[in-house]
Amino acid sequence: xxxxxxxxxxxxxxxxxxxxxxxxxxxxxxxxxxxxxxxxxxxxxxxxxxxxxxxxxxxxxxxxxxxxxxxxxxxxxxxxxxxxxxxxxxxxxxxxxxxxxxxxxxxxxxxxxxxxxxxxxxxxxxxxxxxxxxxxxxxxxxxxxxxxxxxxxxxxxxxxxxxxxxxxxxxxxxxxxxxxxxxxxxxxxxxxxxxxxxxxxxxxxxxxxxxxxxxxxxxxxxxxxxxxxxxxxxxxxxxxxxxxxxxxxxxxxxxxxxxxxxxxxxxxxxxxxxxxxx
Length: 278
Hints:
Layout: E1 3-6, H1 12-23, E2 27-32, H2 39-44, E3 49-53, H3 59-73, E4 78-81, E5 86-88, H4 96-124, E6 127-132, H5 136-139, H6 145-165, E7 170-177, E8 189-191, H7 221-232, E9 240-243, H8 245-264, H9 266-270
Parallel strand pairs: 1-2, 1-4, 2-3, 4-6, 5-8, 6-7, 7-9
Helix pairs in contact: 1-7, 3-4, 4-6
């Protein structure tokens, strides 16, 4: 039986994944900053679910959560770093304290969880680490510079981690969801208090009060959860998993644009070597 530890289970993809994991008979450590929001999952699956309060920016809670999970189930087979939130602001508008908090949660919180579970995974020479990123890490829309940077940092770290852990029997997968019908564009989306009029037609178009997508996103969290379980359970989980038809479309376009720009500047880029060094 596989034991999953999933952060950010109160709503959205985290909750859908927890429900799917439990429905298939696996164990799940379901966490949220407010444990009351996941208490029902533990009550409906008393032998397979453990509900814990967990703020990933609190190192004491991170350590305690992993220890309780290991005490209850004997070890953690899959860590899913799902806890996080969005932040919108033009780069110039972003408040320093808000940006640091964003990175503390979306990046450093995930790192803390990874470092906490790795000793057990290394000892068993098995395990899977999943980091929930965003298509924003590569399409980098205006107004999402800081959020995209936090997720890009997460993906960069995950890519190196995958190469470090692969010889030890541990897999690492970054997940880039598209737009899913979750609370991300609602309660989980924050923005800067500062508004600069010069950015009204770029970052300003994506401020929360202008966002009309909440509740109309094409992605189904339940289907995303099943897709993630399938990928992680495969013989060789992918380094990057896209979720949603919109993700496939926009990332495909981004890759085409990057290739076109590489070719357009190939001669200039390649002409910077010392003579005879090719």
